[in-house]
Structure formats: C-alpha cells, structure tokens
Amino acid sequence: MPNVNKEEKFIRALEKSGLNYNEALVYFSLIKLGQKGATVYELDHHFTPFLKRTTIYSVLRKLIELGCVREGEQKQGSRKVTLFIANKPEEYYDRIILEKEKELDILKDLKEKYSDYFDIIYQEGMEYVLEELDELIQPYLRPLVEKGWRITSYLIKKEVPLFEYTVYDCMLKSPNAKYLKENSFHLFLFDDNIEKDTTSLQFFIKGLKNKTYEIVSYFSDIKEYKLEEKMLEFYNKTYPGFNLRVKLEDLKNSKFFDEVIDGIRSYWKKGDIGEHLATKSKDLQEQVDIHEKEFLTDNSLDIWKAVIIPIQNKLFFLWAESYEILEEMVEPIFIIEKIPFNTK
Questions:
Q1: What per-residue string of b and e applies to 71-96 under the rule 16 or more CB within 10 Å gives b?
Q2: Contact at 8 Å (CB) between 183 and 172?
Q3: To which H or E segment does residue 21 belong?
Q4: Percent helix, strand, coil in the chain (nearest 5)?
Q5: Which of 117, 155, 324, 329 is deepest in the core (most CB within 10 A)?
Q6: What does the angle CA 293 – CA 294 – CA 298 come to, to the nearest 5 degrees?
Q7: Which residues of 224-236 are buried (b: 16+ CB within 10 A; e: fewer)?
C-alpha cells in the first residue's frame, strides 16, 4: 500500500502546521481535487464510515476560518450547490509563517518589557505599595506597613454565588512572625448588613471554613490536620475563628516543615518528635518563654489561627501564626470602624 503511506506523509505535514488529523485529512482530500473542489455530499460519500457528515461540516467551517478552504458554487440541474475548494497550501503556509512571526515579535517585546521585573519577583518575591491598592482597603493596612509589614499579594474579586459581594484579598508578611511569614487579610464587602443577618452570616462562615480547607490542601502537603472552630477575644469582644492543628509526627515528614517551619525548631525539646530533629542546648531551651512553649500541647501544634469579624456590611477574615499577630491586624480595623476598645 505505497500510496497510503505517501498520503499519510502529506497529512502529517499538514498536522505539523497546526491542524488536527481530521482537518488535515479533509484539506488534503480537497488539495487532491484542485480547483474542482467537492460538495459535502461527495466528501461524505468519500469518508464514510470514518467521518460523519456533521463532523465534515464542522471541519470545513474550521478550515475556512483558517484560510485553507474557500466556498464556491456549482450548478446541478435547476439548483446550485456549495463547493468547497482548497486554497493553495503555499498560501496557507505563508499565512501561518506570518502569524508565527507576529507572535514571535510580540514575545520578544514582552521579554524586553517584563523580563527584568519577572527576575526581581523571582529573586525577591512580589510586593505592593499602599498606593497600588484600592482606597477602601488602604487605611486598614497603613498602620501595619508603617510597622514594617509587606504586602505580597493583592486581588479584587466580584462574586455572586448565594451572596453578592466584592472581596479584597491581600497576603501580608509580618516582621514579627517566627515561622509562618504569610498572613491573610480578606475584606468582604456586601450590599446588605451581613452582621445583622445571622442566618446568612453563619452560612458564610461555614463556607469560609470549607474554603480554608481547600487553601490548606493547596499550599501544604500536610494531609492530616484539624480545623477547630474557636471563639477568639480581641479587646473584650468575641468573634468566631479557627485553629489549624497539626500532629507533630505529620509535620516533621512534610515539605512544609523544611520550607517554613525552621523558626519553630527552637521550641522543641529533645525527644518531642524524634531524636533525628535538630535540637537546641539546655541553656537555649531555657530562653524560650512560657508563651512559646504553649505551642506544644498533646503532641500537636497550632500552626495558625483565623478570625472572622463582621461589621455591618463588611466582613474581615484574617489568619496568621499567632493570636498576637492577629491582634496587631485587628486594631486598625477597630479604630477605622470606630469600635470602642482599650489597648492592654
């Protein structure tokens, strides 16, 4: 079957230009017919049972869009039928080459314009200044930035699932964090008063908990963890929140430990999670204060805490490694929202 092999060679050559197999097959069949062309009926008869008529119509529309095929007419008795005629392959290849050259020019321009910026981000990470954020969210973060906090991610998303709201999504780095440098600051802005609508609020809190599970699963290879619901108190006001609790045995075997948790090693005493972990001297252990030792309870560790603060039509969702860092994020919210409180 030498002719079959020869035709397959030409069909593969057309595939390499960007056509799929069916497109290359139909185009090559029309190339063989030259200016004569063919009707869909003739193509259908030729390709039966390999291609259905509906598939042939779809392929022809795509080939016309790509400039491989054009339409013509042929008189058959008292009526006219549509012919499909192949354009010269040389013209098709020239058009593809021209498009690729344009794409290459665009890529070169993008490389020249952005490669230095990407290199800085690659080496140092992303960072925003306050003025790049929406004016609505700037006041809540300004006191943190003035204390050395950095804004490493910022998104605005409009959502209309069961509730219509806009979310301002920020990731922050705290200079006071010991091991989990990333902290999350989410502001959800609703059309209605979410604080007074207790049913909707509880439903939304449940959704945040489910979303938190997804976030932890995405950013960490720790598969066994417990998200404990917990009420957190800030300046004599109590709000719902979560504790993310991880077994030390699971933590030590994760990449999360190697990449992020180095700062917590000094909290651990010899034998806490195995002889092979880097241990500190007795003198250094004695320097660890009581609060830091509270990280270790029941052979597990709270690696971060989250709090949900609804205020009228706003809902703040914050998470960080410790209560103290959360408190630092909460204070500007209370000041801006004019919530009375006394600092300790």
A1: eeeeeeeeeeeebbbbbebeebeeeb
A2: yes
A3: helix 21-33
A4: 45, 25, 25
A5: 329
A6: 105
A7: ebeeeeeebebee
Give the model's pLDDT for residue 75: 64
pLDDT-derived band of residue 108, with 50, 70 and 90 as boundaries? very high
For residue 27, count CB atoms less than 10 angstroms from its CB and return exposed for 0-12, middle for 13-18, buried for 19 or more.
buried
- Nearest one of 302, 325, 308 to 227, comparing CA atoms: 302
Residues comprising the chain, all counted? 344
* pLDDT level of residue 266 (50, 70, 90 thresholds): very low
Distance, in Å, from the CA atom of 26 to the CA atom of 44, rounded to the nearest integer, reads: 10
Q: Look at residue 270 and give its three-state secondary structure.
A: coil
Q: Which stretches does DSSP call E strand in the chain?
A: 69-76, 79-86, 150-159, 165-173, 182-190, 225-234, 237-247, 296-297, 300-311, 314-320
CB 242 within 8 A of CB 229: yes
Q: In angstroms, what CA-CA distances link 251 with 152, 211, 259, 277?
A: 25, 21, 11, 12
Residue 216, both tokens: 């932890």
Instruction: Tell me if the pTM is above 0.70.
Output: no
Q: Cα separation of 262 and 324, whole Å?
A: 20
Domains of the chain: 2-87 (1.10.10.10), 127-336 (no CATH)
Where b means 16+ CB within 10 Å and e means fewer, 258-295 reads eebbeebebbbeeeebeeeeebbeeeeeeebeeeeeeb
Q: Coil, strand, or helix at residue 29?
A: helix
Q: Coil, strand or helix: which one is 320?
A: strand
pLDDT reading at 294 higher than 60: no
